[in-house]
């Protein structure tokens, strides 16, 4: 209830839960506990919104890398590189990367919510003008495939 109320007063928490259950994203146990069944959600409609999210994400990733190259900042922007893998090994690495992302997501999201809550209570609205983005990606392809 608190999570839904913190995001919107237009939608009732029960309606959000019912929709998550309908989509197979969550289930409500007999004890009243809610259990998420999926680690993420990508809507099937709303291409424009999805494209905007991707554009914003790509912008921020490139901005972090560019500012690091210019020596102006030291943003987190790292990747693991490995080649000469079999398809099976690349798949296994993908599974491990997804598991690592889930843990990182929980840790960073918990702190992001705590910082947001803190700032809402303790920082004047005019001073709450920063945004932050944390992400991860995984990509595998044949070694001969290079961007053109």
Can you describe what's shown?
With 148 residues, the protein is mainly alpha-helical. The chain has three domains: 1-41, no CATH class; 45-77; 79-148. The chain is built from four helices and two strands, in the order ααββαα. It has helices spanning 2-7, 13-22, 47-69, 87-122, and strands spanning 26-28, 34-36. Strands 1-2 form a two-stranded antiparallel sheet. A hairpin with a 5-residue loop joins strand 1 and strand 2 (34-36). The relative contact order is 0.07. The mean pLDDT is 84.
Secondary structure blueprint with pairings:
Blueprint: H1 2-7, H2 13-22, E1 26-28, E2 34-36, H3 47-69, H4 87-122
Antiparallel strand pairs: 1-2
Short account of what is shown:
The chain is 51% helix and 4% strand. The chain is mostly helical and 148 residues long.
Identify low-pLDDT runs. none
Radius of gyration: 20 Å
Order of helices and strands: HHEEHH
- N-to-C terminal Cα separation, in Å? 49 Å
Compute the number of strand runs: 2
User: Proportion of β residues?
Assistant: under 5%
Described by strand count, sense and barrel closure, the largest sheet is: 2 strands, antiparallel
Counted by DSSP, the helix tally is: 4
Number of domains: 3
Structural class: mainly alpha
What coarse outline follows from CA principal-axis ratios? Answer: globular
Tell me the helix content.
40-55%
Q: How do the strands line up in the largest sheet?
A: 1-2
Could you report the average pLDDT, rounded to the nearest whole number?
A: 84
């Amino acid at each position: 209830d608190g999570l839904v109320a913190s995001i919107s007063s237009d939608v009732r928490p029960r309606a959000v839960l019912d929709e998550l259950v309908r989509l197979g994203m969550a289930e409500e146990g007999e004890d009243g506990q809610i259990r998420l069944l999926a680690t993420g959600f990508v809507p099937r409609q709303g291409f424009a919104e999805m494209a905007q999210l991707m554009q914003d994400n790509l912008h921020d990733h490139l901005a972090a890398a560019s500012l690091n190259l210019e020596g102006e900042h030291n943003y987190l922007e790292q990747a693991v590189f490995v080649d000469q893998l079999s398809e099976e090994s690349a798949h296994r690495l993908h599974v491990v990367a997804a598991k690592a992302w889930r843990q990182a997501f929980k840790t960073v999201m918990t702190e992001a919510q705590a910082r947001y809550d803190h700032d809402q209570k303790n920082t004047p609205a005019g001073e709450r003008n920063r945004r932050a983005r944390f992400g991860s990606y995984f990509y595998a392809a044949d070694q001969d495939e290079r961007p053109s």
